[in-house]
Design brief:
Blueprint: E1 8-9, H1 11-18, H2 22-28, E2 38-41, E3 44-48, H3 49-58, H4 69-80
Antiparallel strand pairs: 1-3, 2-3
Amino acid sequence: MNTDTPILLTDEQSAAAFHVSKRKFHELQSEPWMPRPVALGPRLLRWSRTELEAAVARMPRQTERTEPAELARARIDRIKDGAT
């Protein structure tokens, strides 16, 4: 067992593992594929490293690049006007 990597991670460590901000990590907690934290006390929450790793496999994948409707409309209008 590797003693350098903790089994339970703080929210800062978990966010760093996902390469996102702590705020974004907390936003991700509402996603159905994200694991729930382990409660070690009323205000002491930790996330299981192995559960976070497994959550990556359950993350939705982007199937195609989507373009916001406003950008698509503007692009179509430019094409219609003959601009490139």
